[in-house]
Amino acid sequence: MFSCAFFDFDGTVADTKADVWESLEFAAECMGAKFPEQFRSNPAYLALSSDALYGCAVPALPEGGQRQFAQLVAEHYRHRNPFSHTALFPGIEKLLQRCARERMPCYIVTNKPAEPLEKILIRKGWACYFGGWLCPDSIPGRALSKPEMIHRLLRKHPVQGRPVLIGDTFSDIAAAKECGVDSVGVLYGDGEPSLVLREKPEFVAESPEEIENILFPENREENCKGASEF
Predict the structure, then answer these.
(1) Which domain covers residue 111, as residue numbers?
(2) Cβ(132)–Cβ(156) under 8 Å?
(3) Cβ–Cβ under 8 Å, residues 182 and 164
(4) Which of 43, 98, 112, 190 has its CA 20 to 30 A from that of 171?
(5) Are residues 63 and 96 in the same domain?
C-alpha cells in the first residue's frame, strides 16, 4: 500500500519528555527559577516556544533573559544530557522491524536538532532502522521546514508508490498535506489529539500496533480471520 514512511521522532517514535524536562529545569535553575510541578505531567507544555516557557518559570525571570535561557537549554540537551530516560514507545521497535522485513524504507523528519537526534540514535542503537533523517539544522545556513525535509529525502531516495508521514502534532499533518503525502495522525504522543484530528489526517492511530495495521493492512485481515476460527 505504501512505499516508504516518514516518521516524526519526539512523541511518535520515542518518548523524550523526561530528558527534555531535565534540560529545561537545568536552565531555569541556573537562572534562579523553576517550573510549576504540573508542567511535567502535561506534555502540551513542551509544544510551547522557548520564550513562552521562559515566561512560565517561577519566580518570574527578568525581561531580556530569553536568549540566555535558550542557550542553557541547548547546551545541556546537546552536551550534558545522557538521554537515560528516552525510550521507544512500546510496539515501535516491532513496527520498525516489520518495516525492515517488508523492505519499506523509513526516514525521520523532525524539529529536533541534528546533534542530539544523532547521539540518541547511535547510543540507543536505533539508527539501523532508518535510511536517513533530516532536522531543521541539517543543512548549514538553512532552517529546514518539515515539507522541505520530505521533499529533500524524496529527491535523494526516490520511491515508486505512495509515501506516508506519521506524526503526533497538527503541524506534522499539515506538512504532509503541503507535500501531497498521506498522513497517519498519532494520538498517543505529545501533541494535542483534538488539533491532530482537526487537520483531518487520512488515518488515525492510537498505538504503534495500529500504525502497523495501517502500513500493512494484511495484519488486520489475518487478525480477523484468526478470530473467526474460535
Answers:
(1) 2-15+86-228
(2) yes
(3) yes
(4) 98
(5) no
